[in-house]
Design brief:
By secondary structure, the protein is α/β, with parallel strands linked by helices. The protein has a domain at about 255-395: Aspartate Aminotransferase, domain 1, CATH 3.90.1150. It has 14 helices and twelve strands. The strands form two sheets. It has a seven-stranded mixed beta sheet with strand order 1-7-6-5-4-2-3, sandwiched between helices. The protein has a five-stranded mixed beta sheet with strand order 8-9-12-11-10, with helices on one face. The structure holds pyridoxal-5'-phosphate. Pyridoxal-5'-phosphate binds near residues 86 and 87.
């Protein structure tokens, strides 16, 4: 019989369900807690185990990380993936694999706060950087220097959902012999597959939407076999490999990723547009609202049609007492310092993630006292709209 073609949502359930060296296929993935493996045999067997990259020691290789890596590689349409102890573990290991003293990095000025701090620390190791507004593609191109080895951004910025033109910047990076590395945590491969549009490595904090259940800390990097091989070599030395149980949890969660992301993205679109219509809301940052600034780029980037991610932000009047009242009135959405869970959560950038930025910079980034960031979950869209609408009555 001819081999049939199935959709990604179907195939992903079957990716990574085999353990190398195991001749049974359990219906649920087994969990390998072992920190080392018995290399039954003599020195020739030991030699062959190392030569063939078999299972030896947990920091180097582990079946649960491999099973998860197979699913992520498939989802991102890459050749291989490395699984890390956290999103930050992935970012740190990848940047220190491809940058050395004397190199230059062009990075987005709206990166996740800890990524910015990491890049600033890299300066102490002789790695120079320029932070640029990545919604201005020309400005990014201008910042490239002869020694620029990496261009690094996130698909959609935090908290104002400004988009990076991955395709255009991949060309600019490659003309300069540099790599384009994208953190796709905010939107996931179900909205944008960055490798398909030119990125060399795509990073995910698996702690967020990909796990979705707010119970594991893990990260990933996906790309060509050649690049990931280099990353894995560094990972083993840096000791940033992901924990076994977390890998097991995330591969289990990934089986429902497409259902969760489709629902969350559908909800984000509905909620963003309902907020846009609300008289108390000054501005909504989400690609499907009528006055979104990067409409054309959004069409190009989110071309697979599943949605534009499930992160949005919106601006209320700068009135602390009423914002507090709004927060107290909410019955579903609640405050949590994370994103990407199945339950809708909010965060207030001015008092949390961006609290240490100078006022001028906050203003330039659109971070006002009234700005609230929402990570949209998988509740019923109508319930979310009902909840936000009644809570915004605090401003009546
Ligand atoms: C865009 C982005 N990248 C990376 C990270 C870091 O991920 P982790 O907390 O898994 O280290 C975060 C965390 O919020 C994030 O929002």
């Amino acid at each position: 019989m001819d081999k049939m073609n199935f959709e990604r949502e179907t195939n992903i359930l079957y990716k990574g369900d085999r353990v190398k060296g195991c001749d049974i296929v359990p219906e649920a993935a087994p969990l390998f807690l072992a920190s080392a493996f018995d290399i039954a045999g003599d020195l020739d067997d030991v030699n062959s185990m190392y030569e063939n990259k078999g299972y030896t020691y947990i920091r180097t290789r582990n079946p649960n990380r491999h099973m998860l890596a197979d699913k992520i590689t498939y989802m991102e349409n890459g050749e291989d993936s490395a699984i890390f102890s956290s999103g930050m573990g992935a970012i740190q290991t990848v940047l220190f694999t491809f940058l050395k003293g004397g190199d230059h990095l062009v990075a987005s000025d709206t990166l996740y706060g800890e990524s910015i701090e990491l890049i600033e620390i890299m300066k102490e190791y002789g790695i120079d950087y320029t932070f640029v507004d990545f919604s201005d593609t020309q400005a990014v191109k201008k910042a490239i220097k002869p020694n620029t080895k990496v261009i690094y951004s996130e698909t959609a910025s935090n908290p104002c959902v400004a988009l990076t033109d991955v395709e255009e910047l991949a060309k600019a990076a490659h003309e300069n012999g540099a790599l384009l590395i994208i953190d796709n945590t905010f939107v996931t491969a179900y909205a944008v597959r960055c490798l398909d549009i030119g990125a060399d490595i795509v990073i995910n904090s698996l702690t967020k939407f990909i796990n979705g259940h707010s119970d594991a800390l893990l990260g990933s990097a996906t790309g060509s076999k050649e690049l990931i091989e280099k990353v894995l070599t560094r990972q083993s030395i840096f000791g940033t490999a992901g924990g076994t149980f977390s890998a097991w949890l995330v591969q289990r969660s990934m089986q429902t990723l497409s259902l969760r992301m489709k629902k969350a993205m559908y909800n984000a679109d509905k909620l963003a547009n309902a907020l846009y219509e609300n008289p108390h809301v000054i501005k909504v940052n989400y690609p499907t609202v009528p006055n979104y600034a990067q409409k054309e780029l959004a069409k190009k980037l989110f071309k697979n049609g599943y949605g534009c991610g499930a992160m949005l932000s919106f601006e209320m009047p700068d009135d602390r007492a009423k914002i507090n009242e709004f927060m107290k009135r909410l019955q579903i959405c609640h405050y949590a310092p994370t994103l990407g869970g199945v339950r809708t959560t909010m965060s207030h950038p001015a008092t949390s993630s961006h609290r240490d930025l100078p006022e001028e910079q906050k203003k330039a980034l659109g971070i006002t006292e009234g700005l609230m960031r929402i990570s949209v979950g998988i509740e019923e869209a109508e319930d979310l709209i009902k909840d936000f609408t009644q809570a915004l009555k605090a401003f009546d």
